């Protein structure tokens, strides 16, 4: 992990590092003061690419960073922090964004858990509406933009009650027909990551991957219980409890929305964020027939394989029978 910058360091003769406010394997996030705009504070996300990569691959990754940062800088939505600048210093890339004050939803959830309470569904529903709006906006870009790391700690609630989806570290631009490199190599946070997102950039991720993470985030917020990760659910069906079995105050409609979005196979999830939002806000009942109970969700992909084997065995049996009659 790269050594973090020290308080007082100045980048590009403009950004004064105040303190570290976040840290990960590929770099840190800093609170900084903007010397050009007096009184403005911002968040600097630092990215250092894997030093084991060859020089040409590191250069390619930095070029990809610049391209994607340019796209992010054009975004303008109330539930997203504004990206105002980006630059590189040596092997490190920097993304400059609005600093978002307030607690993240993980902190609020842990406070409720410490008090042996659950977050209220109507409150979580309000946050879900705002998050859905942000994702609808991202997914409607041309080409669509995936966040790929939706989780409670990446959702901040400002003092005014506005939700912000922060940390674009794993953002992916879905350019049709092109191999896409993410700003930071990785798969996201395991508890909220769908099966198809494992394996790096060769995986076939699309907007339904964000939909899975959205559902997993709501599961955690409403139950105070981390959802079983997708790999564990696939290998050991039955490891994830239904939300209402943990918190009976969750409405059946919200539970169905969560389970629908957390289907292991992308084809079994809502096909757009708008479709899911219309369901959990009551505008549509399409999820009534699409949302399956938790055991079906966990075993869907395995059952498909079993069904293929059974069908294959049946065909072989028929062929054998026909041959025996002929010969």
Identify the notable features of this structure and list them briefly.
single chain; alpha+beta; Phosphorylase Kinase, domain 1; Transferase(Phosphotransferase), domain 1; 2 domains; three-stranded antiparallel sheet; 11 strands; globular
Secondary-structure map:
Layout (H helix, E strand, L loop, with lengths): L9 E2 L3 E10 L2 E8 L6 E8 L6 H19 L9 E7 L2 E7 L4 E2 H10 L6 H19 L5 E2 L8 E3 L5 E3 L6 E2 L33 H17 L6 H6 L7 H4 L5 H10 L11 H8 L6 H4 L3 H33 L1
Antiparallel strand pairs: 1-2, 2-3, 3-4, 4-6, 5-6, 7-9, 8-11, 9-10
How would you explain this protein's 3D organization?
- This protein has 327 residues and is of the alpha+beta class.
- The chain folds into two domains: 89 residues, Phosphorylase Kinase, domain 1; 201 residues, Orthogonal Bundle (Transferase(Phosphotransferase), domain 1), CATH 1.10.510.10.
- It contains ten helices and eleven strands.
- Strands 1-2-3-4-6-5 form a six-stranded antiparallel beta sheet, with helices on one face.
- A hairpin with a 2-residue loop joins strand 2 and strand 3.
- Helix 4 crosses helix 7.
- About 14% of the residues have low confidence.
Helical proportion, percent range: 25-40%
Strand content: 15-25%
> Separation of termini?
70 Å
Rg for CA atoms: 23 Å
